[in-house]
Amino acid sequence: MRTEKLRPAPLAALTTAAFITVLTEALPAGVLPAMSADLHVGEPAMGQAVTIYAVGTALAAIPLSAATSTWRRKRLLLTGIAGFALANTVTAIATQYGLTMVARFVAGVAAGVVWALLAGYARRLAPEHLQGKAIAIVMAGIPLALALGVPAGTFLGEAVGWRVTFGAITAIAVALLGWILATVPDFEGQPRGERIPLLATARIPGVTPVLFVTLVFVLAHTILYTYIATYLDHVGLGDSADVVLLVFGVASVLSIWLVGAHIDRRLRVLMITATILFAVAAALLVSPGLVYVAAALWGLGFGGVPTLLQTAAGQAAGSAADTAQAMLVTLWNVAMAAGGVIGGVLLGVAGAGAFPWTAFVLALPVLVVVVRGFQSRVRLWVG
């Protein structure tokens, strides 16, 4: 059911689905002290609410994508969003830490289902020459959640309580179910027996480089993002963390807009540019006087990366795109979980000053792989 124009209503529904997944994942960081006090656990223990969400997503994406590959796509999308409604409802009313963590894990599983669907769904909603732009519209939910959703949720949590905030996400999810039913067309799943196995998908030319870039780029970003407040304290700018993150968020929104405008013609150039901008931002962070410039370049570089990687994976994998997307989602969340752990080790061993340099060093092999993809005949970074 493709048309020659983009269809705003169903694409906006998918954007909202992306928004909900990221907001549900990141919101505990904004209301951590209140959740910790209410559930009678320490803040480090409460912080694992973010980790267990990522673990649920990483564990679920590939096996659930395989198990539901024959399901009709709309049915699967509705199931994933219903999982968010259920998990956030339990989170809002739970009075025990253990039950809250179970709900967070279920939310992560729901995210694994939804994230494995979104890029492929967006591509199927658009004509071939606009597929990259369609994915960019859907992926705009990520920076919008980080730049607007999390601050708004934090403000609401401080004003009326963190439980109301999670209840509000449930309300959005329920409204989204109706929106999807009304506007999003249905598509068939893969015919039984036609799903390409993981190893065969990884051997498709171009897929492994995309997965490598996903793992290393997201690892570099997560190390820096998770500990940015700690680093700013280290350089004497601890009181400016909210402003630095706002600059990053605004630049990320601008990045997703620029990527959406040009991705269908310049995917490879955009990916190289994003990597260079990130590397330069990491290097500039070393200088306290250039922190805001670095945050802007960081946002410009990283904001469009989810769209670029999802598009590259789909183009490289072809008929195995759904499997490749599930692999990408898994590695993305593995990198997020590993970033928190590795960053903590770095902090203890080398101090906060090591974070920018670590991100810079990790960006170098990413740039090499992207440039090699640019020079090869493989359908990687085409455009």
Automatic annotation (TrEMBL):
Major localisation: membrane
Record PROSITE patterns: MFS
Signal sequence annotation: none
SUPFAM superfamilies xrefs: MFS general substrate transporter
Presence of the UniProt keyword Membrane in the record: yes
Gene3D superfamilies found in the cross-reference section: MFS general substrate transporter like domains
Protein name, entry field: MFS transporter
